Amino acid sequence: MVRLGFVIGLVAVIGVLLSGLAAWRGYEQELAIDRIALSRAIDVHASLVQERLIERELLARVASGLFRSPSAVRANMLHPLRASIYAFKTDFVTAGWVARLHPGELPQADAALAAAGFPNPQIRSFDDTPRDLHSLDKPIDVVMDVEPQNAETVVFPGRSLDRDPILGPMFARAMQTRTPVVSDPIHLLMPDGPIGLVIATPVFQEGSETAAGFITFSYKLASLMLTNDELSLFSVVLKDPRNPRSELIADDSGNVTSRLRRPADPVPLVLRTVIFGGRDWSLGYYPKNNAIHRAQKLAAVVAAIGLALTSIICGLFGYVAYNNLRLSREIQVRIGFERRLTAVIDELNHRVKNILAVIQSIVTRTLRHGSDIEVARELLIGRIHAMSNVVSLLSESQWQGVKLRGLFEARAIPHTDRIAVNGPDITVSARAAQSLSLLFFELASHSDEGLSLVGKHPHIVVHWAVEGEGSEAMFRFRWEEFNTSAATRREDSDFGIILLDRVAPEALGGVSKRYFTEASYVYELAAPMETVVDVTERDRTTQISAPIRPVTHQAR
After folding, report:
1. Does 400 share its domain with 488?
2. CA 30 to CA 36: how far, in whole Å?
3. From the Swiss-Prot or TrEMBL record, what is one GO molecular function term (predicted)?
4. Taking all residues of the chain, what is their mean pLDDT, rounded to a whole number?
5. How many C-alpha atoms does 89 have within 13 Å on its Cβ side?
6. What domain count does the chain have?
7. What 3-state DSSP class applies to 280?
8. Can you say whether the dihedral through the CA atoms of 236, 242, 246, 250 is positive or negative?
9. What's the CA gap between 130 and 123, in Å, rounded?
10. Which residue from 352, 382, 355 is spatially nearest to 366, judged by alpha carbons?
């Protein structure tokens, strides 16, 4: 018992160590997989954002290249560009023409805005407050046209943007760099509208170094950040260029809000830089799922499974060891049964080998090279079902044999409702039952179902009889399918031909033949009754299945 306890303890220690190692490996692998998946998703997202920004900057450059400013101030300058800017199919909110007007051109601009039908053609400040135009001594930037023109945008023409705290510096940088420039984040359409960005591209007249104005496009920030993905592994934020501690974050509905990150708040897992309008923009990525927590849960599950398996193994080991100890004390009582047990095992091995050999032959022949997989699958299932059914019948009779008529009543034989059975109710041996069950299945599964019935009568007739007496008795079996021919009947498979012509007759020690008549298909089998019934096998089975009586010791 001490040795047994030591062995069980050693197994328990090894199981605990292996469980801990498996849990640690699971934890590390889960973290590594999450990191790789998140890193790839972030790289793809940053690349898509950069491509989207390049596309929108390209639209601004193309629009400015197509634009030709006239000598006179006009208010419908974007009309010729409608087809070009909409052909890009970008999701801009508004497109605008902002003219750089000298003080002497302002009255003409008022008249042009009024003629275009804008509701407020007066030149005014960016917040719609009046502006003293008589004191101007330098050009100002005035909105002269917008696209699309709707109730929200037609109020913009006439506003001067040079004093706007966000757009004014943007126009100044665009004039200085002569390239597209992007503004800081700004509310679009109205003071509490969606947060977005405005890109401005200067337009120069031929032979002039001074910009005649700017083509502008405004975009919602959420569409530029590609944030509307509920299945994403991360949430993305934009670092506010005006405040390093502030972040612009969009929810799944596309609403962008600004939040101030506190020192105790987590920092983004990854930062990516994209370029838009000559500026660097920083995108921060926060993972939506806690990879460490998920890895810890996985490790806990693996460890629990390992410990449970260790407990089960130790318990089984102890249980088996205890039973071995108990059985060792009963060996002397069971010595008298050893010869009987050996005989049972030998008989069982013999029958199991026979069954396995038959199943192996069925599988090999059915799934031969080149056979149709669907047909082979149906035949294989049916043949194994036929074998399983006859084994069940033999088990119910303790392997004493099977009633021949019972093989036709089994569900393993197809089309039994169309088979008329006629013959004496004889009991066949286990070996004969296995061969005949496969034989009946092959014949029934290849019967012609298309011409199966005449009126309500079955088209298959099965008849068997016993001729002669004693050792000369012969078993004669006849299977006849009516209303069929070689042209309509389903062709026998290779396995079926071998079974009908060789395997079944040889197993029963008889002979067989199959042929077509003018109106039927006939299969006949003749075998000695000694083989079909096999009295020797039945007697041996009867002896083995008899109840075992314990050995009794007579008193001296």
Report:
1. yes
2. 10
3. ATP binding
4. 80
5. 0
6. 3
7. strand
8. negative
9. 8
10. 382
